[in-house]
C-alpha cells in the first residue's frame, strides 16, 4: 500500500481530453457553498420549518440536480447548441412571459415559477440562452459585426432589448446589467469598431442611470450604499449588518459556525449575503481563498475561450469568453454589494449561494466549458495525426452550412 501510494503521488497524471483543474475548481466551490449555506441557514431554517438542516438538504438536492444536468450537457456536441440557439432564446422569452402571469412573488418581485421541488427562475435561463444565441450570431455574422453598425451591431442589441423589457417588468435590473456587460464584452472581442462600442456603452450606462432614477426603491438603494450608517435601522440596515460581519471576521475569522450576524440580524444570509458570513466565520484568509478559486475558474474559462478562438472554433470561443465575463462580473457585483462597494442587486455568488436555478444553470455553463475544451483538444489531436499536407485548418461552418448538411 505504501509503494502504491508513493507511485500515485509521484507519477504524473495521464493526458486527458478535458480540463481537470476546471472540474476540481467547480467541485471545490460547490462543496464550500454547501458548507457555508448549511452554516448560514441554521437560524432561519429552524424558525421557518423547525428543522435546522432544511435548507442544507434542499441545497444538496440542488447540487445533485446540477451535477445531473452537467453530465447530460457535457455529452451534447457544440454544433447542436449552435443550431438550436434561436429555439433556446425563444424558450427563455416564453418563460419570462409565463413568470409575469403565474410567477411566485417574493418581496414584491415576480421572478420564480413554482415547479414543486424548486422554483424556476427564468432570468437565469435567459442569461445562458442569450450568450449561446450571441455566440452563434457572432459566428454567422462575424464580418458584418466588424463592418456594419446597423446590420451587425444593432441587431443583437434589439434582441437584448426584448429580454430586458421582460426582465424589467419583474423587476430584475441586476440580471439586465449582467447581460448588458457580458454582451458588450462579446461584441468587443468579436471586433466591433471602437467608436461604435464606446458610443453604445455610453448609451447603456445612461439607460441604467435612467432606470435607477425611475424607481424610488432603486434610488434608496444607491443612497443607502453610499452611506449605510446614515440610516442603520432603515434603508442601510442590510449593509451595516454585512459590514459588521466582515469587521467581526478579522484576519482568521470567528470559526466555522460561530457567526453572530446569521442569527437573523443579516437578512438573506444564505443567499445574496452568504459572502458576508464567509467573511465573519473564515476571516480575510477564507474570503481571499474563495475569491482566488472563483477567479481561477474565470481564468480557466477565458483561457479556453482564447485557445478556441485561436484554433478557429469561433462558437466555442465566444461562448467560453461570455461565460468568463458573466461569472467574473456577477462575482464582483455580489461581493461588492456585501462589502457596500456597489448597490445591492440580488445576484448570487456563482456555485456558492443557495438557489436551485442559479446552481443548475451555472453548472450547465461549466459543463459547456468542458465540452468546448474537449472538442478543441480532439480537433487538435486529429490535426496532429494528419499528414503535413492536410493540416490546413478548416473554418467553422455557418448555421446555413450545418442546415444544408443535415438536409443532405
TrEMBL record:
The keyword Transmembrane helix applies. It is a multi-pass membrane protein. Pathway: Cell wall biogenesis; peptidoglycan biosynthesis. It is an enzyme of class 2 (transferase). It is found in: Cell inner membrane; Cell membrane. It catalyses: [GlcNAc-(1->4)-Mur2Ac(oyl-L-Ala-gamma-D-Glu-L-Lys-D-Ala-D-Ala)](n)-di-trans,octa-cis-undecaprenyl diphosphate + beta-D-GlcNAc-(1->4)-Mur2Ac(oyl-L-Ala-gamma-D-Glu-L-Lys-D-Ala-D-Ala)-di-trans,octa-cis-undecaprenyl diphosphate = [GlcNAc-(1->4)-Mur2Ac(oyl-L-Ala-gamma-D-Glu-L-Lys-D-Ala-D-Ala)](n+1)-di-trans,octa-cis-undecaprenyl diphosphate + di-trans,octa-cis-undecaprenyl diphosphate + H(+). GO terms for biological process: cell division. InterPro entries: FtsW, FtsW/RodA. The keyword Oxidoreductase does not apply. Residues 389-408 are annotated as: Disordered. It comes from the Bacteria. The chain crosses the membrane at residues 21-44, 56-76, 88-106, 112-137, 149-167, 173-190, 197-214, 282-302, 314-341, 347-370. Keywords: Cell cycle, Cell division, Cell inner membrane, Cell membrane, Cell shape, Cell wall biogenesis/degradation, Glycosyltransferase, Membrane, Peptidoglycan synthesis, Transferase, Transmembrane, Transmembrane helix. Its EC number is 2.4.99.28. Belongs to the SEDS family. FtsW subfamily. Peptidoglycan polymerase that is essential for cell division. This is Probable peptidoglycan glycosyltransferase FtsW. It comes from Vibrio rumoiensis. The lineage of its organism: Bacteria, Pseudomonadati, Pseudomonadota, Gammaproteobacteria, Vibrionales. The gene is ftsW.
